[in-house]
Design goal:
single chain, about 400 residues, alpha/beta, 7-stranded mixed sheet, 4-stranded antiparallel sheet, 16 helices, 15 strands, about 40% helix
Length: about 400
């Protein structure tokens, strides 16, 4: 299904003014929209609203227009002419009399993005029912993407965004689909800075474990890392304990680790698309500048900050130097990057997976938990649990077609 195409009203219509809803169905082909309005133009009607959707080559075109002047006989002529034109085009038509414009949308407008891999009828029904149960009305649905996941967006009115988010979080967990709820408005597309965690977010690896593999202490370091990410250990203490195990490694290991780093699927597409759309992109990491500086250069990032492994006489000392990038440090760096970019925090997006990302996720205008630990999923604004980082784009309302267009030309 393509995105609905809706025009602003071009005529002022009172609640009691007679109007006609003209609906056209059938096989899509060039010229249908022009043909319908050419037919209506003969009756000097004004266009109040238009909506058109094409699904698998079948068109549904709706036009809300003022009733023609001249009374019942003129309206009868319009109906007969439209039906005759539709038959000549092998289309079906329905014309419904009424009064006034569309019913005003309720307050509390939200965008509900649903990601499924696949998206089943059962999960779609449950999401729709949950929206209704919160008092929300589904005004429009359209598909954002068909791969690598199916992503659809519901435009919802009449429900509080936070209430809707809470209700749908429960449903999404039970259904095994990802549901993101954000408030509607210009700010959604105005978010101009995206800051990501690195380990297990931008990349598939934990950098310190890559270093540990060369030091022969991978299992020991991995256990400490897992406990820190679950929030069971103080990050700074765990960082010093793990780095101490690397003491004596030759500095040449840095190049080896850089070569071993694996980007998360969709990472390049995400960054390239954001950059082409005018966003600034940064990373913050509890890992090491020896890797993040390389990623910044390779991926064209605007900002990068991490801890720095101390190297003396060509050997790792087992210590880090400078300001520690921990949970509070990541939020502090988000604010610093936003200030340098000239972007208010309300227009920032943060993406991360671990407990040490929570302050950053909560400080951002939109915090996205990416394949995150349970404590992070529960606290973040929204969660994505598919292994494709570029799905974050759909939460911003970017369609797959827009992604492809942004990446067509180098």
């Amino acid at each position: 299904m393509s995105a609905s195409q809706t025009s602003p009203a071009t005529a002022v219509t009172g609640e009691d003014d007679p109007t006609l809803l003209v609906k056209i169905f059938g096989k899509d082909r060039p010229g249908i929209t022009a043909g319908l309005f050419d037919t209506l133009a003969a009756y000097a009607v004004d266009v109040i609203d238009i909506e058109q959707v094409v699904t698998r080559g079948r068109i549904t075109l709706c036009a809300l227009v003022t009733a023609p002047s001249g009374g019942a006989s003129t309206e009868g002529s319009l109906r007969a002419t439209v039906h005759s034109w539709a038959e000549s085009m092998r289309l079906q038509t329905e014309i419904i009399s009424g009064r006034g414009d569309n019913r005003p949308r309720g307050t509390g407008r939200s965008h509900v993005t649903v990601l499924g891999h696949p998206l089943t009828a059962e999960s779609t029904a449950a999401i729709a029912a949950a929206i209704t149960d919160t008092g929300g009305n589904i005004d429009r649905i359209f598909r954002l993407a068909k791969y690598p996941v199916t992503a659809v967006e519901f435009a919802v009115s009449g429900a509080d965004t936070e209430k809707l988010r809470t209700a749908l979080a429960i449903e999404s967990a039970a259904l095994g689909v990802d549901v993101a709820v954000v408030a509607a408005g210009l700010q959604r597309r105005a978010q101009r800075l995206v800051v990501m965690d690195v380990d297990s977010t931008l990349i598939q690896d934990e950098v310190i474990e890559l270093f540990a593999a060369h030091a022969g202490c991978e299992a020991e370091v991995a256990e400490v890392t897992a406990r820190a990410m679950r929030g069971e250990l103080d990050f700074e203490q765990s960082l010093h304990a793990r780095v101490a195990l690397l003491a004596g490694l030759d500095a040449s290991v840095v190049e080896k680790v850089r070569a071993e780093v694996r980007l998360t699927p969709g990472a390049r597409t995400l960054i390239k698309t954001l950059k082409r759309l005018g966003f600034q992109v940064g990373v913050v990491s509890g890992g090491f500048t020896q890797v993040t500086d390389d990623l910044r250069e390779r991926l064209g990032l605007d900002f990068a900050s991490a801890n720095t492994l101390e190297i003396v006489d060509g050997k790792l000392t087992g210590r880090v130097t400078g300001e520690i990038v921990d949970r509070a440090g990541k939020a502090r760096l988000l604010r610093r990057f936003a200030a340098e970019a000239g972007v208010p925090l309300s227009q920032t997006v943060a993406v991360g997976d671990g407990a040490n990302d929570l302050d950053m996720l909560n400080a951002a205008g939109l915090g996205v938990a990416f394949n995150a630990k349970p404590v992070v999923r529960e606290a973040a604004h929204t969660a994505v649990n598919v292994p494709f980082l570029d799905t974050v784009l759909y939460l911003l309302g970017v369609t797959r077609e827009e992604v492809e267009a942004a990446n067509t030309h180098e």
